[in-house]
Design brief:
Number of helices: 11
Distance between the termini: 42 Å
Structural class: alpha+beta
Helix content: 40-55%
Order of helices and strands: EHEHEHEEEHHEHEHHHHH
Largest sheet: 8 strands, mixed
Radius of gyration: 21 Å
Strand order of the largest sheet: 1-7-6-5-2-3-4-8
Strand content: 15-25%
Number of strands: 8
Length: 229
Amino acid sequence: MPQTMILTGDLEFRARVVPLTESVDAEWVSAARDLDTWPGSREAARLRIRRDGAHRARKLYSPAVLTDERDRETLREMTAHGMRVRIAATPLPQGTVFIDRRTMILTAPVSTSASASASPTARDHGHRTYTMSVEPALVSGAYALFEAAWEAATDLAVFFQPERPQIGTQARTVLSALASGATDAAAARELGMSLRTYRRRVAELLVMLGADSRFQAGMRAGELGLHRG
């Protein structure tokens, strides 16, 4: 088998991947834009955790996966069975899966216009293209990038904490300004606010986060993953 190949369509993808799923002890690590990035990935995850558990599985998802209640329930089920799930700081343009750090499979990137026009299942069903590689240099390099994204991501549990404040767009921009270390005057100019309005927004943010100081507000926001959306 060549070290890198193109898989065209879901049938060819399944033919290559199914034999790799037979090992109970295999490590599965993936990054995906949604729960349907891979054909049958939603149900496959459920079957795996019910049959074998998921102690060696990690999944990194785009923030949009939190917007749908059905998706949130699936994510809860995954973590309840031991799967480690994190939410990326920014949207992920394509899916990547690593099997025992020896095999890597990538989906073709999806354009913004295409993703906005249809659901993932309707848009891609049967027509997705995948790149499969066992080239050590490519796999190890991509895996290192995954690890960096994983470390910068927020644990799923943070988003389900009932005490997590709901931060609006304007409050988030103020939070970013605080994190940047800019002076109040510079931050106010950047945000198009008067100095008085900016300081009032900062005070409101401190109350929202239950913080006594700007430093404490930054620490609290970091703990809750608010800097990442």
